[in-house]
Input
Amino acid sequence: MLSDHCYQHKIAYLQSSINTRLQKNQFKVKNGNISGTVLHTAKGNVNAHEWQYTTDIVNFKNRVAADTTTTSTTEIKNLEEATKYAFFHKAIQPGTITDWEGSIFLVNT
Output
């Protein structure tokens, strides 16, 4: 049986975990003007951004890492047309542990 102190910490951890998963994504994706491109936009005020995508929209395996950027936007090129992708974003801030956001689904045109 857990002590009251341990129990309170466990509840706080679970609430924090639930709140983290329920947070709204801080990035957006949309089809670019050229077929096979997708534009990513994230909130600024961080040192860098990591971007990933995959066509595995069920298990999110085989993610492809796009170039890390220091700007809050990037364009991913040469994607397959008429294919559904899942996109992910991670803000990089020194001294802070950040999680991947996503997935955002988009059918590339």
